[in-house]
Design goal:
alpha/beta, disordered N terminus, 51% helix, 5 helices
Length: 138
């Protein structure tokens, strides 16, 4: 049942993201806000960021790769991973792309910042809690 819910969510997300109005106004403002917000955090190191469930990769492309020295990302969708692997040739800061779910992702590095863009709404509460506990240990 959760796969059907995720599929519906992804279909809706794709419809919203494909509209020119979304890209022209909302998305640009969103990424500018995130960019400015990240830069305003005092004592945040800018060595490495983790992009959780990166979907279309725009958070990494528009924001994280412009701020952090390295960006690591993961998504459970093989198509999303393939798209981001192709971006690695263009974005030198994108150092690793992994296919994993929020449940199966293993922290093998330290991250200055962990970013979750729209991936929590379809998650089970306990999965999110477990991920955040692993992230805290990081």
């Amino acid at each position: 049942m959760s796969k059907q819910k995720t599929s519906t969510h992804n279909d809706n997300e794709n419809q919203i993201r494909s509209s020119p109005e979304f890209h022209d106004e909302n998305e640009n403002e969103f990424y500018k806000f995130i960019h400015d917000f990240v830069l305003s955090i005092e004592d945040l190191g800018f060595e490495r960021a983790l992009d959780v469930a990166f979907m279309d990769g725009q958070l990494t492309i528009q924001v994280l790769s412009k701020i952090f020295d390295q960006v690591v990302g993961f998504d459970q969708c093989s198509k999303a991973v393939a798209r981001m692997e192709a971006q690695r040739k263009k974005i030198r800061q994108l150092c690793m792309v992994d296919q994993a779910s929020i449940v199966s992702y293993e922290f093998t590095r330290h991250f200055s910042g962990i970013f979750m863009n729209q991936c929590t709404q379809d998650m089970k509460d306990m999965d999110l809690v477990q991920f955040l506990k692993k992230a805290k240990k990081n």
